[in-house]
Amino acid sequence: MGNFSILDNTHIDQIVDLGSGVFENVTASTVVLNIKNQPTLNNSKIITAINNIEKHDFSISVIDQSQYRENISYAFNIYMGPKEINISKRIRHRGSKLCEYYIDNIEGIVAHKHLISVRP
Measured between alpha carbons, how far is 13 from 114 in angstroms, rounded to an integer? Predict the structure, then answer.
């Protein structure tokens, strides 16, 4: 077994995705982890699509904590349920890697400095 510190030694009780815009001038999503210092109980409660916390207007799902071991870099993908995970596994095992099809990795859209404005 590998070194999965959080996954091996704690239980991720709850993950709350507060979305972006929680902090001024920060566009990244703010995520709160509720972690218990005990062996995993497997299921983690996931709270997303929060409209109003006080009125309990949000989506709740449950994810088996062990599925995080199968993600790239052991990322906590909170949006894939069992069905999506199964599809992803099938594609990964049956498909070919993108690097087998491309020769050059060329930049996308390039904007010269004189074309970039700081004005809205």
Answer: 50
Contact 85, 70 (CB under 8 A): yes
What are the residue ranges spanned by the domains of the chain?
5-115
Can you point out the beta strands (E) in 3-115? Answer: 11-19, 30-36, 43-52, 57-64
Q: Has this prediction a pTM greater than 0.90?
A: no
SS3 label, residue 100? helix
Q: Which of 11-15, 74-78, 88-92, 95-99 has the highest mean pLDDT?
A: 11-15
What value does the mean pLDDT of the chain take?
79
Q: Which residues pair with 62 in a beta bridge?
A: 45
Would the pLDDT of 25 be above 80? yes
Taken in order 67, 70, 71, 75, the sign of the CA dihedral is positive
Task: Please return the burial class of 15, using the count of CB atoms within 10 Å of its CB with bins 0-12, 13-18 and 19+.
Answer: buried
